[in-house]
Design goal:
The protein is built from four helices and five strands, in the order ββααββαβα. With about 160 residues, it is an alpha+beta fold. The protein has one domain. Strands 1, 2, 3, 4 and 5 form a five-stranded antiparallel β-sheet that branches. It starts with 19 loop residues before the first strand and ends in a 27-residue tail after the last helix. α2 runs antiparallel to α3.
Length: about 160
Amino acid sequence: MIWLLACAPKEIPPEPPKGVATVVEMQTSEVASADRQAITAAVATAPIRPCFESLLARAPGAHGEVVVEFTVGTAGLVTASVPAFATLGDDEAATCVADAVRRVQFPTRADELSVRYPFVLITDRTPPEVSRALKSRYGLLPENELDPSGDPRAPIPPGVVVVW
C-alpha cells in the first residue's frame, strides 16, 4: 500500500511595508531660527527607521506618532531623552525612537536646551483618514487639501482629540 500525503506549502507572510518616518516641527524653549534649523537637521539624522521597521515586522499595520522630549547639553550631547507621548501602541518602539534621538550629535551650545520633537510614523497601509489626521496635526497637508468640506477625512479642528 502506498500512501501519498500532500500538504499545502507553508504560507510566507508578505514583507511589511517600508516605514516612512517624517520629522515635523519641534517645540522648544526660545531659540534663534539658526539654532532651530541646526537642531532640525541633527534630529533628521536620528536612526528611527529601524525602530519603525522592527515594529512593522511585529505589527504590519502599525502607525502613529511619537513625541520625544529631550535635553541637549552644552557639548551637543543629548543628556536625557524620553517618549513624552506616543500613539503607536507599542512602548518598545516609542522607547527605541527616544533612544535613537539620544545618539544624535547636536551643535555645541552656550546653554542647555529642552526640546519636544514629534515624529509621524506611517506607511502606505495606514488608513487615509489616519494619515490625514496625523499630517494635519503637524501642518504637513498641502494647502489644496485644507478645505473643511464636511468630509470625515477633512483635517481635525484644533483642540479636538481623536482616539483610534
